[in-house]
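User: Predict the complex.
Assistant: Input components as received:
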Amino acid sequence: MLTEAQAWTLLDTVPDPEVPVVSVVELGIIRELRCREDGLTVVVTPTYSGCPATEVIGLAIRDTLVAAGAGRVELETRLDPAWTSDWIGEAAREKLRAYGIVPPTGKAAVGGPQPIRFVKKTLTCPRCGSNDTERLSEFGSTACKATYRCKACLEPFEYFKPI
Amino acid sequence: MAADMTQQNTATAEHIEYVTRLGDNALILGQRLSEWCGHAPVIEEDLALANIALDLVGQARLLLTHAGKLEGSGRDEDQMAFLRVERDYRNITMMEVPNEDFGRSTVRNFLFSTFQVLLWERLVQSSDRELAAIAAKSLKEARYHLNHSAEWVIRLGDGTAVSHDKTQAALYYLWPYTAELFAANPTDEAVSAAGIGPAWSELEAAWEAMVLPVLAEATLVVPARTPFKSYGKFGRHSEHMGHLLATMQYMQRTYPGASW
């Protein structure tokens, strides 16, 4: 059997399948671990309702823990409180940036003001550091990212949306 | 789990109906939007529409799973989504009408995501804790959908002569269906009285206050209200619904219980 601390360490090696530079722990989706007589219960809060990675993440968590001898692993989904990008840690934000994804800026507007249209948000290009960037789309290759372009180095990049 | 059991035993028919309507709205619009995959005018919008569709299908999964638990019949999300007959679907008719073109899909997303934002804001306070949790999560997603579609309504409406005319035609086509959102009915009254959620009619003024300024900025003419009524949320659908279900249900009807 694993201790809770061992399990946390192991889970920190499980990458997010869409953004493999951060682990599921760094992403903040593992909310709680409970040791039982015969194994472990992992409480997971999904990011977006329709995130296709959710099931793959569940499988990876189970495989990793079972392979390390955790016994019977149960996954529990917790919706409340809803996942927020504010739970992504500082170190993970730097990893995202180094990987070419601008981490979420500011605090997510939970219960905040209504969206303002055509807002110009200045993002710094993760490749060349220029502030001369523009948004191409509020959505990107995955639900959690928006698509931007740097007008200085002409490279496209992604932005992890605050939610 | 204990809370779930209590809820199961006390859920009224109106409560189940209300949650089913929410789930079916998300499911059917998600299905329609997924038709855009590979067909949108530009790649960024292809991605955007597919992502919005995914969010909606994800919301539908949570809501229909919850509706199945409330009714206590053991039906899971797949049985709810794929194995009901047309009359048992409770989405408003506007969700099922064809995409037609990018203009109509955009205007529909705008009209509906505005409604969803307002509804989720209220449902965060629901006495049904599971529904409140789903609302808190879905609200964040709906805000992105609203922002995205509102920008496009303005761009298209206040764009070229062609984009303006197509968007105006879309608004003329869709506007009469929005009346169904706010039509009073016994389900809403019972649910509102029980503190589970607002009667949708309570949201009409706030919805107009959000929708009209955007339409004005888009230089679009808002059609006058007509006596036209649609009844999708009571299970009486348009001729388009059967075709949509034939496509959506095909796999489960052909290979019952299939999973992968």
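The mean pLDDT of chain B is 94.
Let me know if you want any component modeled separately.
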